[in-house]
Amino acid sequence: MRIDLMAGASLSVGMPTTSAEPTILVFDSGLGGLTVLEEVRRVRPDARYVYAADDAAFPYGRLDEATLVDRVLAVMARLIDLHRPDLVVIACNTASTLVLPALRQRFRTPFVGVVPPIKPAAETTRSGLVTLLATPGTVARSYTRDLIATYARTCRVTLVGAPELAGYAEAELAGEPVPDAALSAAIAGCFVTTEDGRRTDVVCLACTHYPLLRARFEALAPWPVTWIDPAPAIARRVVQLIGPAPRTVSESACLGTFTGRAPAREALRSALAARGVAELGVEAMPLALQ
Ligand code: DGL
Questions:
Q1: What pLDDT, in 10s, does the model give residues 79-135?
Q2: 203: β partners
Q3: 180: part of which helix (H) or strand (E)?
Q4: Best substitution site from 27, 39, 60, 229 to test ligand 1's pocket, by max atoms within 8 Å of Cβ?
Q5: Is the bond into 59 cis (omega within 30 degrees of 0)?
Q6: 8 and 104, same structural domain?
Q7: Which residue(s) pair with 2 in the sheet?
Q8: Is 166 in the pocket of ligand 1 (CB under 6 A)?
Q9: The domain containing residue 172 runs over which residues?
């Protein structure tokens, strides 16, 4: 069974689990999925977590669709085999907007996928001008176009595909923030004014890396807008699927696993530890570009 969700989430119900201490695998191309992990851990602090970053293939936004499908299927096969998760969160819009059907076909594990939060954006805007800020891959997907046609027909949706922003977010997390000018240039296209004086008032953060830059976006925006991050909606869907945390819980550890190399820089290791990812490992899977 497949359920399409309202708030930037897409969920498939394969074999719902009710286990007391489920294992949840949160997957992204890099470190953006940490923004989703944080929200999910808030609602299920008792679960065992594996945070998996396919850093050997980062950034996904540059990969062609066939390569990306093959890559995610291959990495997921390895991760599921190793960690036997009860639930997988694909904390990556670039992957979810393309690979979810293939994942659901291949594996029995339930998947929750982060997809662009078009519906809540359309419900929030007052000016009718909404921007979708995402990777070039997500912007190009027919899935994204279908979401807009279904949920935001009455809005004017501006699509901004930012090739460099996910990398900027990783630099920010590693304690090497990019200059204001570079960030301002990357988001400039998000802000639109019409001839009758209406302005963009909602921007969808349709890449899980972007909430890492949210404070800087807010400071650099030419006017205030509502930034929509789908992560809290994803956390609610996880609870819907596997249930709430038991009353007494102790927070469990989270393993961070990487397909390339484990973060070496102290600033990055500290940032991960601050998010509860203290144990780091590598499951090497070099990307063989076809
Ligand atoms: N975090 C990913 C997303 O939500 C994309 C980053 C990348 O290009 O790898 O789309």
A1: 999 999 999 999 999 999 999 999 999 999 999 999 999 999 999 999 999 999 999
A2: 131, 227
A3: helix 180-187
A4: 60
A5: yes
A6: yes
A7: 12
A8: yes
A9: 118-229
